[in-house]
Amino acid sequence: MSQYSNWIHSLDYSRYFFEKAGTRRIRHHELTGYLVELTIDPIEKRNLGSSFEQRAISHFSWGKGPVSILMWSQMHGNEPTATLALLDLFNFIHLEKKSEFLTWLSSKITLHVIPMLNPDGAERFQRRNSLGIDLNRDALQFTSPESRFLKFVKDEVNPVWGFNLHDQNPRYSVGSTPNVSVISLLAPAFDSERSDNPVRIRAKKLAGLLRQEVESRVGAHVGRYDDAFGARCFGDNMQKWGVSTVLIESGGWYQSPDKPLIRELNFRMFLTALNAIASDEVDQASTEPYETIPFNGPLMAELKLEKVNLGDRRTPDPMLERRAHNPVTVDLAINYPPMMDWVTGTERLVGVVADIGDLSPLKAMATMDFSAYLIEPMKGNFMPMPVTTDVIRRSVLEGYDTFFYPSATDPKRLRSQLAIGVSLFREDFFSEHHTTSLLPGERASFRILNPETREVLSIWINGFEVYNRDSGWKKGEPWVMPNRVKALEVEL
Ligand SMILES: [Zn+2]
Prior knowledge:
Layout (H helix, E strand, L loop, with lengths): L4 H5 L18 H11 L5 E7 L5 E7 L4 E7 L7 H15 L4 H9 E6 L4 H6 L20 H13 L3 E7 L4 E3 L8 E4 L11 H21 L3 E3 L9 H7 L3 E7 L9 H19 L2 H4 L3 H4 L4 E4 L3 E8 L17 E8 L2 E4 L4 E4 L2 E6 L9 E3 L4 E4 L2 E3 L6 H10 L1 E6 L5 H7 L5 E4 L19 E4 L6 E6 L2 E5 L3 E2 L5 E3 L11
The structure holds zinc ion.
């Protein structure tokens, strides 16, 4: 423990939250602007690299101490949580630069930070860089300029410690528990035998301290990431090069796609780590808190509707010779992967059927008992005339969920005029025979009925309720889609 441990642990995070960067879809030019604002004295810009598409990648440093620490974030473009937390850390350094703690810390360590190592990927909100290369599989060949920059900085500053900052699939459970993995930690292996040496043991001790910090705030929600040796991966090679490296994976949290809590946990882990490294806390620690972290378990569903009576009153489909069937009782799992809204360039969540049938072994972040209701898939396509909120609402009540607009219409304008969360496609994609179903991979659109009276109680489109008998229409924005939904892949 240092004399500052308690002070750090009880910090009011809201004072340091850098609120301008409020969204996970942070663009490179926005980050650049924030960094100009935050990285003034005593934070220095040390090296400037550039991506394959010539976007700037910056290396900042702070402190004058003998222990060199390197943190890099967002080598996967669609994994921004730690980048935002690094802005909070810079904000903290900025606001507390005269504090006793930072005066002490800056005499012990020198912190090196590369926020957003993959700006081209971040611009597209995709994992890989603009060449399609996964930077975390490029630590042997260094084909990409981004990988070369990370290696260059590592060689220059010769860090004792490394922090490899990522987002994982947000639906991992912790071991066999029903708890979602909010943070996963790993002291990566440096060989395929997963051997230990002093470099890795030190990383394990520190990861154990980070586990305790997170669990003191959210309980048993920390998982251990897969520890198989990845010969081409940066974390594993850093460990091999003698840098004690900790992988921090930001996971998921209940009904929280924007992850504000996880951003805060990152910020708190950074301070815990810097304090522990600068004091004797890591040396004093045991590896046991790390070695007993349960590995990430099976993926959970985001929402599970149990004992659904699934009926079908859709128009018969002559292409498929499909006819309506009598109700069957099933469980229905829905996930909400992000989808790029091509009109606004923003991230939207789309509720997609993940599985259907007997889902008793499947854990879910939220569960609802649907045994009292009958649900029916929506009927599918409709070309409204004119395309107005009122006309669309009437069609939704009749069971349609997917609408088409004339190709001469400006989709941006249309989107701002309509106040309902339906799917809109350009008319070229109209297909008379397409109907919505609740098969895995399809958008989760259905009506909820009273099974006796068949009264419509509620209507869900793309996993969200748009209408409720008691409270009326919910305000929402339509999803404008170029063609069929392609949910953005969440890779690891
Ligand atoms: Zn990643």
